[in-house]
Design brief:
Chain lengths: ~120, ~110
């Protein structure tokens, strides 16, 4: 079966711009989570969606937002980009919940570079 | 908030040597998961441990969950070049969220 698909794979943006990243989870998976990965901070939780509802949000500023559609596809948006937003953004899908004895299946990520 | 610490941060071994990474949580965990990320890749789920004192094996990989459910370890016997990557442990950090350790980066001299 198809894995988790993230688009685009690479993105270069200028400070102050905004960006939208997309994630299509594994078919049948209803939970989509987003993580930011940087060399200094590691993997940091952004938010999690299930059935179009955000169930949890990490400690990121309001410039980071997301949503989930009825087909479980998810998008995250970062507005007013800062240099520190340069990172690998990973989408992870799971059947129902990552804590219900299911691990994440991660996508290949979107590498965002802010210049 | 909850913290998950992993040591060592880096480990370089000769091919054929053993490797161990340790994970410690500031709180008791209901379960712990392990992931592997190859260079340039994304994390891949390896295993989940749930029971106190649990030991699970996957070929040359042995995973342990501590009796107090606050620590875990991953041991690789006789490393191979295919084992190169960063190994992460992760525990529940609240509803629908995992807290990841900083990872142990394993490099291998063939």
């Amino acid at each position: 079966k198809a894995g988790v698909t993230q688009t685009p794979r690479y993105l270069i943006k200028t400070r102050g711009q905004q960006v939208t990243l997309s994630c299509s989870p594994i078919s049948g998976h209803r939970s989509v989570s987003w993580y930011q990965q940087t060399p200094g901070q590691g993997l940091q939780f952004l938010f999690e969606y299930f059935s179009e509802t955000q169930r949890n949000k990490g400690n990121f500023p309001g410039r980071f937002s997301g949503r989930q559609f009825s087909n479980s596809r998810s998008e995250m948006n970062v507005s007013t980009l800062e240099l520190g937003d340069s990172a690998l953004y990973l989408c992870a899908s799971s059947l129902v919940s990552v804590s219900a004895n299911y691990g994440y299946t991660f996508g290949s990520g979107t590498r965002l570079t802010v210049v | 908030g909850q913290q998950v610490m992993q040591i060592p941060q880096y480990q370089h071994v000769q091919e054929g040597e053993d490797f161990t990474t340790y994970c410690n949580s500031s709180t008791t965990l209901s379960n712990i998961q392990w992931y592997k990320q190859r260079p340039g890749g994304h994390p891949v789920f390896l295993i989940q441990l749930v029971k106190s004192g649990e030991v699970k094996k996957q070929k040359r990989l042995t995973f342990q969950f501590g009796e107090a459910k606050k620590n875990s370890s991953l041991h690789i016997t006789a490393t191979q070049t295919t084992d190169v990557g960063t190994y992460f442990c992760a525990g529940p950090g609240g509803a629908q969220k995992l807290v990841f350790g900083q990872g142990t980066r394993l490099t291998i001299n063939p």
